[in-house]
Amino acid sequence: MDTLTKDNLTGVNHGELFSNTPLKYLTASSMIGEKIQNDNDEHLGEIKDIMINIITGKIEYFVVEFGGFLGIGIKYFAIPFDLFRVDKDKRIFVFNRKKEELEKAPGFDMEHWPDTNIHFDEAYSYWSFMG
Question: In CATH, what number is assigned to the domain containing residue 45?
């Protein structure tokens, strides 16, 4: 009996302990709340939510929470997923933009969530142009 069949029948994993190496998969719950930094180790916020295209099944963008103190002055951004990379050693997502760019960038607050598709098109154009 092969290992996969044995695993499926018993519910016990008999394969390698760290089979996700090199890193290929992450759970949504492990990404939400993760810190975002740039290559200069500046803290740029955290992943507040994940927007998944239900037609393609792919992550379209992260909703990124930036700035603020005690809930005041927080901005949210829709940033395309493909503009991030994972630093698996630091366990963070890297978005290689300067903190000042986020301070000046158009965002939204959670009480005034824009039309998702239109906002994503505008956000994608904005961040792609800024790249």
Answer: 2.30.30.240
